[in-house]
Target: Translocating chain-associated membrane protein
Amino acid sequence: MTFRKKGSKNPPLLSLEFILQNHADFVACVGMFFVLGLMFEGTAEVSIVFITLQHGVIFPAAEAEAERATAPKFLYHYGAKDLATVFFYTLVAIIIHATIQEYVLDRINRRMQFPKQRQGKFYESGQFSVFFLVSCIWGTFILVSENCLSDLAVLWKAHTHNMMTFQMKFFYISQLAYWFHAFPELLFQRSRPQELSQQAVYVGLHLFHIAGAYLLYLNHLGLLLLMMHYFVEFLSHSCDLFYFSDEKFQKEFSLWAIVFILGRLVTLIVSLITAGFQLAGGHNGISDDSAEDVNVLAAKIAVLSSSCSIQAYVTWNLFNVQLQRWMEEDAPLQAPSVKKKRIKGRFCRKGTENGVATSNRLLDSPQMRKEKSS
Model:
């Protein structure tokens, strides 16, 4: 992505340049309308749909005792009202994006004075590094709090009665909102046409897999796979930031490439074991209605194919990035040699011209005229 530059002159009011430069302020005003709606009784019900999580159900106390719980649980499922909640938190993601851009990344760029061709990649890696780091910490906390790491059977089982906890649903809503906000950011950041399609596919793949895990109630499996994917992506963009600051960190990129390949292999193994073996339990005639195992053949094929597709796509991007950097490293080595040849040729021509002019002046000198006349 390329970053929009703020010119010294203010653009005309309500022009495209004015909207691009102040889009975060406009989005903040829209978000404030929903927040202020909570203060009035007539609009509070509408604002609550946008701000708070919807489709909550109180888990019955009798069934809660069967689940070894001391009090009723408040669980959630998905529904049409989630679209309103995702829309509101998309606005929040745009505001946070602009805040990090202005108060963190812009100051680092002014201090480091990156070349123009690297500024877009620097801003992109900086934004993704913050997002992936926060998501990894948040997702790991959810995995630990819901005993997903101690009881691996939770990975291939949907939650009781196809429900999810508050923190699990809020995590998925936030993830969907962040990746939805990436589409308008392509316009706000003025992405190049050759980068637009690649960025759109990258964002679309994340939305497809996160929404698939959310709608199929594969919340824990999707969360675990996301954490592995986000951790590798965080290392990737962190290495990019070090590489932009100093090219001597090229070795760290090679180290990350090894971690990247290992992360893809682990992700594929977990997907194959979970979807290929556990989700196939329905073919053995074993059905657990109380746990609501997701053992539909279509779901199994969708999970396997989607996991393999995104791993293949990100691996292909790795090779493209590495090839591009090799070309950038070879370019400075070839440019000076061409320049020297041009300079040398120019000097030779200049020297020849000077030599011809000098010889002509000597021939036209008075002494040479006398010798010719004698």
